[in-house]
Amino acid sequence: MTSSHAPEDPNTEKSQKDITIPRGVTFDDLKLEMTNEGRLRFNLDIIEQVCKASDLPVEVITKGPESNLAGLLVTWYQKHLSQGGGHNSVMDSLLAPH
């Protein structure tokens, strides 16, 4: 299942909660892409797995403000990079100063 959201400045609100990434799940599994309409598309099943492992109700992400999704993605991406993961062009573009 995929979902799309309009991108929001991910620098405005970063989640302080440490998230738990399930074993075998990688940041690349999100399959992040920016649509031609400028919306962020990703694999919602992966978000649901991360929410479950992190004891975070998925509705916080799917029904809450977009800043919740941005916080989750930024927190995970920073963790991913700090553990030696490769750069993601979509996230790098979202995080770049505009």
Order of helical and strand elements: EEEHHHH
Radius of gyration: 12 Å
The low-confidence parts are: 2-16
Mean pLDDT: 86
Please state how the strands of the largest beta sheet are arranged side by side.
1-3-2
Number of strands: 3
**Helical content (DSSP H or I, runs of 4+):** 25-40%
How much strand?
A: 5-15%
- Assembly of the depicted chains: single chain
- 3D shape: globular
Describe the protein in words.
- This protein is an alpha+beta fold and 98 residues long.
- It has one domain.
- Helix content is 39%, strand content 10%.
- It has helices spanning 44-53, 59-62, 66-82, 89-95; strands at residues 2-5, 33-34, 40-43.
- The chain has a 3-stranded antiparallel β-sheet.
- The longest helix has 17 residues, at 66-82.
- The chain is globular, with a radius of gyration of 12 Å.
- Mean pLDDT is 86; it is low at 2-16.
